[in-house]
Amino acid sequence: MAVFWLLVAFSCLGFIAGLPKINKYEGYKIYDVYAKARSADFNYIFSELAKNESYYEVFQPSKGSIPTRVMVHPEEQVNFVQLMDERSVAYALRNRNVGLTLSRQFAKDRMLRQWLPYNGRLGTERFYTHGEINQYIEDLAKEHPRRVFVKTVGKSYEGRWLKTVTITNGDARRNKNVILVDGGFHAREWISPAAAVYLIGELVDNLEENADLLKDYDWVILPVVNPDGYEYTQVSEDTRFWRKTRQPSSADCFGSDPNRNFDYHWNETGASSNPCANTYAGPKAFSEPEAVVMRDVIHSYADRGQMYLTLHSYGPMILYPWGYIDEVPDTVADLHEVAEVGYNAILEATGTVYKYGPSSTTINYMAAGASDDYAFNAGFPISFTMELPPGGTGFDPPASDIDRMVKETWLGIAAMARKVVEKYPLA
């Protein structure tokens, strides 16, 4: 009988989701733009469009065959299409009404939360709140007191607790090497905390299968670096694409980009001094309490840390330093070797093709003041940003995609971790 009513509810949901709902993104369109060869003119056009954040958002300016994806305000769509036609640039309409898509997604997410409340475990059926994620790692620590340890490492601007979970094999040996993982830097990238949560579950629940990853290594994970922004994106469709923190940045605007707020070439290339911009670097380095927390976590493990991995979306890409400049470090061969292992593992298992390489040239823009450059400079020999594949319009994969995406991500992470364990044995 319960199954019957569940089916009835989802049938009603399908009807409700089909009704038009007005929100901030009503009438916005998303286009994929293709260029046979990237030219200075092409890149200039999209760099200029990206500056006009009131009417355009360039989601992903990528190289090669991957299209540039841009969301366009209703009032600018005629101008945008005319500009593309005048420049003989090929484009395709990806989404004809972003607002309607978001309304349907939010309706489904609310229904899933009602039908699948937190029960001590986090599955892959829906996205979870920051509070649920914190409760989950606390419950794991109670369930596995000799293997799982939770530490409160700080507070967000709005007062939410940031907690790390350390996962061991329970042998109580001290001073093992460390793999440090974080998620949820950018608020709208919900698949990032979901992947971090799945990783936690794999390491805790499948000890025998992952014994080699925990023999001489401890894993430290901070699932949501930017909980204020993450919670804000779950308020309504209007806030779904929020990226930054929530600390006021000016009289009119809120938030800084926490991944431009680190004190390593802070506010240089790829960052903005405009408090209202999505890539605003903040009034000073480490102005954001969330970045300060992550800085301190990085330094607390830098003497033992062998890999730092920050989970983002979207790509799919595995990126390594440098992000602030079009150059690579002297140890680029080591970085490339580990990234290639992750690339191959995912390709062989699922067919998904990740791009991998130096951040600035692979993602086709620079990003100064980012955590991966900072962690590498602090002493982590392997430091990656893993940009998970797109879903939905890009940053908003539906809940039905979570299971596939996080399992695929784990395959790549586990493969890279095994290479790190091999390359950097415990001294």
Can you tell me about this structure?
By secondary structure, this protein is α/β, with parallel strands linked by helices. It is 38% helix and 17% strand. The protein is built from 13 helices and 12 strands. The protein has helices at 2-17, 40-51, 77-86, 98-115, 130-143, 191-205, 211-214, 227-232, 289-301, 332-350, 359-362, 371-378, 402-423, and strands at 29-34, 56-60, 68-72, 90-95, 148-155, 161-167, 177-182, 217-222, 305-313, 317-320, 355-358, 382-388. The strands form 2 sheets. An 8-stranded mixed β-sheet has the order 5-6-8-7-9-12-10-11, sandwiched between helices. It has a 4-stranded antiparallel β-sheet with strand order 2-3-1-4, with helices on one face. A hairpin with a 7-residue loop joins strand 2 and strand 3. The longest helix is centred in the C-terminal third of the chain and has 22 residues, at 402-423.
One letter per element, helices H and strands E, the order comes to HEHEEHEHHEEEHHEHHEEHEHHEH
Number of strands: 12
Mean pLDDT: 91
Give start-end ranges of low-pLDDT stretches: 1-11, 13-20
Helix content: 25-40%
Q: Classify the secondary structure makeup into a structural class.
A: alpha/beta
**Which range does the strand content fall in?**
15-25%
